[in-house]
Design a protein that fits this description.
By secondary structure, this protein is an alpha/beta fold. It has twelve helices and 14 strands. The protein is globular, with a radius of gyration of 20 Å.
Length: 338
């Protein structure tokens, strides 16, 4: 494809290697041009023509680069996104976009001032399990919604070696790690809540930060949305539970993309993003006579490539990006408020 978006990735750690480079490399609308690798130079093993810079500053000085992917530690997102925008580069910023809504506002305004797109990488909108839940909700099969539960649970008792997640830094802790994923999913369907309450907890031995959170979002017509995550959940319950006046839907967190990408599967592989048999969600509905029926629904194909399609369309065709500024400001206002 002519007029590719020349792209640089600020880090070739796990997120750069798994969530970004494979998509930039296989998408016809992008050119994977450069990464930053401070010590080990591994990107060239998979991408022979890539430039590996020793520092963020060197990468940002490369005039060929149009788009910079900011996937550095959480507390540096604002700093590096701002530097990229000042260098007149478009940015795609990992979650959490910033530590506060004030920082987010500053980046959005700087982008407009410099004629640059400021985009947020909320890839979980394109998970197969969430796509399935969203499809059922939007179908109306459940009737008027009463209660929605989104969970993202893990069992990780040990303190992570990633200091920026575990030390008392801006945007640290589980709320800023997994919270942006599930909160964005809720906001993408239901929008800004009328009100909300928040509960945080710290339970792992030696933890300095929250490793449990629960958000209760209240919406019109009495809809209650509950968002929960914990790092000491031994046996997770279904991650998505939705109840309405005419039915319920239960779905486990079964998206396979991260696992496939870790094994170096190409996003172009026909099996990419397809959940294995036995991962179906359970839809229970009532007909007009009050009779209950059960149906197992196969999830839609998960595909993070659609996020990069949206990035390309936004930069080249000036189309609206699906993750709006309003979505991100709403998210951060909930995360930052006590």
């Amino acid at each position: 494809m002519d007029n590719q978006i020349v792209t640089g990735i600020l880090s070739y750690g796990m997120s750069g290697r798994v969530f970004h480079a494979p998509f930039i490399d296989t998408h016809a609308g992008f050119k994977l041009h450069a990464v930053t690798e401070r010590s080990q130079k591994r990107a060239v093993e998979r991408y022979p023509d890539i430039i590996s810079y020793n520092s963020v500053e060197e990468l940002l000085a490369d005039e060929a680069i149009e788009l910079v992917i900011v996937n550095t530690p959480n507390h540096t997102h604002f700093e590096y996104a701002k530097k990229a925008l000042e260098a007149k580069k478009h940015v795609l910023v990992e979650k959490p976009f910033a530590a506060s809504s004030a920082e987010a506002e500053e980046l959005f305004q700087l982008g407009r001032k410099n004629g640059c797109k400021v985009l947020v990488y909320q890839n979980r909108r394109w998970d197969s399990d969430f796509q399935s839940v969203k499809s059922v909700i939007e179908s109306g099969e459940l009737g008027r919604l009463i209660e929605v539960n989104f969970r993202f649970d893990r069992f990780k008792k040990d303190i992570s070696h990633k200091y920026f997640k575990e030390e008392r830094l801006p945007a640290s802790g589980l709320l800023y790690d997994l919270g942006p994923h599930v909160l964005d999913q809720a906001i993408s369907i239901f929008g800004r809540p009328l009100s909300y309450t928040k509960t945080l907890g710290t339970f792992r031995p030696g933890s300095q930060v929250d490793d449990y959170f629960h958000l209760h979002l209240k919406y019109p017509e009495g809809l209650n949305v509950f968002i929960t995550s914990g790092l000491l959940i031994t046996h997770p319950v279904p991650s998505y539970v939705v109840h309405g006046t005419r039915g319920s839907y239960l779905k486990k967190r079964t998206d396979v993309q991260e696992e496939q990408l870790e094994k170096a599967m190409s996003p172009l592989d026909p099996d990419y993003g397809i959940e294995p048999d036995g991962s179906e969600g359970l839809l229970a509905t009532l007909n007009d006579a009050g009779q209950k029926s059960l149906e197992y629904k196969t999830a839609l194909k998960g595909n993070y490539s659609r996020l990069f399609d949206a990035v390309h369309q936004c930069i080249r065709d000036d189309q609206a990006f699906p993750v709006s500024e309003e979505d991100i400001l709403c998210q951060l206002q909930i995360l930052e408020n006590k």
